[in-house]
Amino acid sequence: MVEHVTALLPEWIVPVHPSGEVHEHHALVMHEDTISAIVPRDKLDDAFPQAERIELPGKVLLPGLINAHAHSAMALLRGLADDLPLMRWLEEHIWPAEQQCVGPEYVRVGTELAVAEMLLGGTTCFNDNYFFPDVAAQTSIRAGMRAVVGIPIISVPTAWATSEDEYFRRGLAVHQELLDEPLVTTTFAPHAPYTVTDAAFARIRELAEEMDIPVHLHLLEAAPEIESSHQQHRCHPIDRLEKLGLFNDRLLAVHMTQLTARDMDRVARAGVHVLHCPASNLKLASGMCPVAELVARGVNVCIGTDGAASNNTLDMFAETRLAALLAKGYSGDPEAVPAHLALAMATLHGARALGLEEEIGSLEAGKQGDVIAVELDRIETLPVHHVVSQLVYATGRHQVSDVWVAGRALVRNRRLQTLDEQRIRRETGLWQQRLARVDQSKPS
Ligand SMILES: [Zn+2]
């Protein structure tokens, strides 16, 4: 079989690694699913005469964005209930709706809606945490998108599992089924310290080591979590995780808005990865993640949107800009999280946390062809003094024109290539009606 060779010819290429580098008049060459070279345009014909050339004038190529924390199927709950305190929001709206609706079909439609939104916005990989991870994985695979699905563990019965044992059994079966899937890997996804028992955490530690997968956990999202840990376990959540052997470089800690300086030193020493979700933290008034101080200690910080119910978008361009701005405002230091670092947090750092740094996160020979093209020559991003600054501070996701995952075009000229947009609209509309009925019929 003849290998298919594609040469993408944009105005600029931002590989993210080496940091700060911008290539002009270069081509990115892919052999099938893999990036094989970034070469000057005038060398292309000699080096790769067989390449199919795709001209991308006025556009910049960068690695696909990595959404480090999502609950993709919750896209169906977008805007169902807003402007409420966390517990009222959960107890009066989100949980009742989920109790009545979550099942394979709900997760398929919700995940497909989320995948479509993320692809159109330049996200090529997402780290998911939801029930029916088998359905989320298959939905993502059908769309050609890359995903990391969590094995959910929570001490509450749901449509997915009714006992701790069943959560493990079903989750391990999903992991097994996905072992040969090139686009999907797994994590353990215990919900949060206040909803997971010591026994379950101990089992997760053992299995995660054996299976060599990360542990994806909501941690220190808001202040009450610390108080409740002292009451239930007589210690701080970090102490508890340390005792259980989970506070290490396998841990992907989501939120982390309640950190003292001593906690931050411990995070850095342990090599814990921090998944920062600024919009969700602001919207639920949970607190602020001290990103500048974590970065100064050498902590790997990456960016996620959280679910669309608490954001309310899955827009990684908006999230990255917010992360950069918030880090400056919160630390009082305008030099904190400069543009090139913010972009790395949205790409390479996410890959590192997910154990995928060898495959994705930057445009380098040997890595997978997860690439996006962004129209930078539009009015709203002119003039282009500094490409990376424009990408972080001025670009909107509507400027993403083309998206490739593992060398396959999933979006061309803003059109989804593997998903049926009309069907997604229709099916989402049906769930909208059903969810509205459930939300309105609940006792107040
Ligand atoms: Zn979350």
How would you describe this structure to a colleague?
The protein has two domains: 5-63 and 369-413, Urease, subunit C, domain 1; 65-353, TIM Barrel. Helix content is 40%, strand content 22%. It contains 16 helices and 17 strands. The strands form three sheets. Strands 1, 2, 3, 4, 5, 14, 15, 16 and 17 form a nine-stranded mixed sheet that branches. A four-stranded parallel sheet has the order 6-7-8-9. Strands 10-11-12-13 form a four-stranded parallel sheet. The longest helix has 21 residues, at 421-441. It is globular and about 70 Å long. The model has no long low-confidence stretch (mean pLDDT 97).
Characteristics:
4-stranded parallel sheet, 9-stranded mixed sheet, 444 residues, alpha/beta, binds zinc ion, TIM Barrel
Number of strand segments: 17
CATH class of the largest domain: Alpha Beta
Q: In this structure, how is the largest beta sheet organized?
A: 9 strands, mixed
**Class derived from helix and strand content:** alpha/beta
The overall pLDDT average reads 97
Molecules bound to protein: zinc ion
Give the percentage of residues in beta strands.
15-25%
Low-pLDDT windows of residues: none
CATH-scheme architecture of the largest domain: Alpha-Beta Barrel
CATH topology-level name of the largest domain: TIM Barrel
What's the structural domain tally? Answer: 2
The share of residues in helices is: 25-40%
| Gross morphology | globular
Mind telling me the C-alpha Rg? 21 Å
DSSP summary: helix tally: 16
The CATH homologous superfamily of the largest domain is called Metal-dependent hydrolases
- Distance linking N and C termini: 64 Å
